[in-house]
Design goal:
With about 260 residues, the protein is an all-alpha fold. The protein has a two-stranded antiparallel ribbon with strand order 1-2. It is globular and about 70 Å long. The relative contact order is 0.10.
Length: about 260
Amino acid sequence: MSTGKIAVQRLSDTIAHELERRILEGALKPSDRLQPERDLAAELGVSRPSLREAIQKLISKRLLTSRQGGGTWVTDRLDAGFTDPWGEMLRQHPNLQTDLLEFRRVLESEAAAMAARRATDADLERIGEAYARVEALFAEGPSATVFEEQVKADLAFHQTIAEAAHNVMFGHLTASLFRVTHDNIDLNLRHLRRLDGDWLELRDQHAAIWDAVKRRDPAAAQAAVRRHIAFVEESMLARAQHEERESRAQRALKPGKAVPQSAG
């Protein structure tokens, strides 16, 4: 039988809810370290014992973890359930790449359109900074010395746009998708490094996406992302064909015969 009393939420539950909200919205990302206990308690205006209790609640949910040597860190639990099986599936079944790109086209183009509608000034500043880093790194050309940084900057640019859609599902699904596709994106960019025209085209596509979002033009942002994904799909097909030709040439060699080196 109900007592008629109103349940009073514990302070630790309120703190846990606030930290959970930050994780959901992407203010706290996987591998981020929480501020020192003293600083975080002061920021939230709560006692350190209440904060510790809240952190333990989120550790029990596996949203946070304590690491040896000190500190509390955000886990990737919200994304890992998607990432773990699909990474292996894509490696074992390359034909899934077409389905993956189709999904990316739908997800990222709609996220870009929503970002063009909803982005705050702070969001646009973050996207602008992400774009500036992409452009600066890509301006160095297809350089092996900065290649990994180019891949990371490319992914960060698209992720920042997804977060500016202000829909937590878009933000987390896009982050999960990029973890799954990192190796494939790496291979595609390595293929594009060989072709100066395609490398310039990639830079132009990034510029078009950023321009549409900052002009707050949803239709243009959506179209720019769709063109980008179509270009990636074409690149993936070209890379697969190149690899098949290389493989066929290797099979045609007589045993013990070395592959001739190009004069260049």
